[in-house]
Amino acid sequence: MVKVTAFVLMLSVASSASALPFTKRIAQVISHSTTKWEAASNAVGGGQQCNPNAQRRRHGTLLAAAGPCDQQNAADAMVDLAKQLNSDADMVKFAQIFAQQPRNSPTSQGVPYCQQAPKNTELNGLYQCQYPSADKTTFVGGLQVGANGMIPFGMGAPLSSVGSCPANPSGPIADGSQLTDVTSDPGVGHSTASASGISTSEETGSASDAASATASAAASATDSAAASESVAASATESAAAAATASVAASSTAAASESAAASVTASAAASTASSSSGGSFQLANGQAAQQLNAKFPTLTADSSCNEGDNACIGSSFAQCVGGKYVTTACNTAAGLTCAALTLVNSAGTSITCTTPADALARIAATGAQGGLTGSGN
Predict the structure, then answer these.
(1) What is the DSSP letter of 168?
(2) Where is the composition biased (Low complexity) (predicted)?
(3) Cα–Cα distance between 75 and 37 in angstroms, integer?
(4) Residue 212 covered by a domain
């Protein structure tokens, strides 16, 4: 009788288990997501800031427990470092692809999209692909169709090619695979159509086009700022980056040559005045001043939080493992480290730039008192 009861109980458990919904954990080797970016960074002298240990925090943004914008924030930090290293094109490209790498899903559900704009314009319009085994109608956390986070930021309807991203517009990539193994084209500048026919397109000038740009072409980029803030900022970055061999600033590139610096400052001023979100410009300028006033008190031994950026002397510094790691700015070309204002969104960026450009960027916001707010 006992054996029969046990057998019936086993059948009952098996029957109950088979009635449960089947879920598959979709995972990847997250450390592979930045391999090509690390190689590009090391090739241009990134050193400790590019090694795998320094990337662990970024790898973690692909895990299921990460916030919806953590991956984008990590990609922003990767672009920031690229700009400290002469705006290396490969570093920027692989940061753009990292921003689109599918994330792990423990429940075979889609992963919500970030619902805020990135800090760097190079990442505008980018969002992660999904793995094909992920549910196309339910997202992690039980989100249903129409809920906030189920549609990429800036779009009015779901993607027409479900699970796709600009780097792979045809659809998802194979479960567990890396986007860098599928493509080396981040898809920047491609149009992505939504189900309702709404499309978004981010335009960035190519390095080869910008290399032959003249002062008149740069002036044209300045004119375009009045028509489209994000396009102008991106075009100005490309033109100024090619015009100098120095480290470019975030949002609007810093120029080491006086003509390019003048163009950049003019573009920043025009963009600030034409922005419909101008209310944050003054706050950006004042925040940059506060940071610049704080930097002289820091040393390489100052305590810091992982991922923090700062200026120590004339060098750019990033907190790695609880300690600042510095990257010298090209002082021979007249560059120094400073906090600058973002042009088309709230926030600041710390980078190598010319003193003249830093002053012009802050003054364009209406902030008084120069670089630090104290008149200096």
Answers:
(1) B
(2) 199-209
(3) 11
(4) no
What pLDDT is recorded for position 273? 38
Q: Indicate the range of 179-183, 254-258, 326-330 predicted with least confidence.
A: 254-258
The domain tally of the chain equals: 2
187 lies in the same domain as 275? no
- Among all chains, which residue has been given the structure tokens 């089947």? 22
Sign of CA dihedral 167, 170, 172, 174: negative
Tokens of 27: 């995972």
- Burial bucket for residue 170 (CB in 10 Å: 0-12, 13-18, 19+): exposed
Mean pLDDT of 279-286: 86
CB 106 within 8 A of CB 25: yes
What predicted TM-score, i.e. pTM, was given to this entire model?
A: 0.48
Which residues partner with 366 through β-bridges? none
Query: Which range marks the domain in which residue 77 is found?
Result: 30-201
**Would you say residue 247 lies in a domain?**
yes
The CA distances from residue 180 to 38, 44, 137, 224, in Å, are 12, 20, 26, 33
DSSP 21: P
- Residue 166 and residue 77 in one domain: yes
